[in-house]
Amino acid sequence: MENDELDIDLASLPKQKWVGDDHLLQFGGFWFVPQHINLIKKVINHFNPLPTDVILASSPKTGTTWLKSLLYSILNRSSKHKLAFKHPHELVPFLEGPVLMQSNELPFSTALSNTCRLFSTHISYQLLAKTLDSCECRIVYVTRNPKDTLVSLWHFMNKRRGHQPWTINEAVDAFCYGVTPYGPYYDHVIGYRALYLKRPKNVMFVTYEEMKEDPHGHVKKLGDFLGCPFDGEEEVDEIVKNCSFEVLSSHEVNKSEQSLIKNLFPYNSFFRKGITGDHENYLSNEVIQRIDTLTKHRFHSLGFMYGI
Predict the structure, then answer these.
(1) Using CA atoms, how far apart are residues 299 and 186, in angstroms rounded to an integer?
(2) What distance in Å separates the CA atoms of residue 196 and residue 206, rounded to the nearest whole number?
(3) Domain limits at 286?
(4) What is the DSSP letter of 114?
């Protein structure tokens, strides 16, 4: 790892064009927008999780916003009403996110408290292995069908302000080659799944599809996993309802054109449909076959029968 006090020389990193004239840079086997790389280095070098910390890990566009809402509500039951006027990404900071980008303030350097701290990250396990292998914090990892992840990412990137459009064919190629922010997607999922298989007491691995099929059951499981089980069904029902796509997307803050990072993604870009199987509306049979073949090669060959 480079000297802790020095920024990485971005010009020395592998570079790949992806959307319009924008490029991604490769660091540690994963692809990132250039302005994120030294933030990620800072997290790798300085984040020392407390045993009481909870980390939501995910690849982009796999259900992060929904899980932030659920985890915040489960861990902060007396203040879960804040979701009505605070965007989920404000309530649950990314380790490598806007706070660190805008102010150089480490969001994880807060003073010790009697309550657990809740963070989120898109950084791969492979880059955080040294940190996560040596701590007792709890990690929730969510993943999503690769085809729906791709389509959601394509829509999301086209909502960026002031950027050139990204065609679906360009998105498919980028996804299949692994050249997407925090990608390759398959390596990201495989890394955290390996951590889950190694440390199931510390890691809960869930899929977006399982969550959508039985949100009530999974909220109860999350409560148990996080050490704050529910006494009855009524509060579970309330959290499921208040964190539903229909309710969250109706709040004025989540319909807003404001953004966490000035002139980038508006708050409303994080709420589109919230459904499964939407890829069928955008991907041809040929493209679906191409991604399914890749999924069989990357997931099914390892015994992870998912994604098709």
Answers:
(1) 8
(2) 10
(3) 13-302
(4) S
Other beta carbons within 10 angstroms of residue 259's beta carbon come to: 18
Residue 307 lies in a domain: no
The count of domains in the chain is 1
133: in domain: yes
Residues serving a catalytic function are 122
Residue type, 264: L
Residue for token pair 């309330």: 238
Residue 270's domain is classified under what CATH number?
Answer: 3.40.50.300
Residue carrying the six token digits 């915040």: 72
| Range name among 2-11, 36-45, 269-278 with the lowest pLDDT average | 2-11
CA dihedral 27, 29, 30, 36 (to 10 degrees): -10
d(CA 280, CA 151): 9
Residue 82 covered by a domain: yes
pLDDT in tens, 141-159: 999 999 999 999 998 888 8
Q: Tell me the pTM.
A: 0.92
Amino acid (one-letter) located at 141: Y
Determine contact, residues 8/37, Cβ cutoff 8 Å.
yes
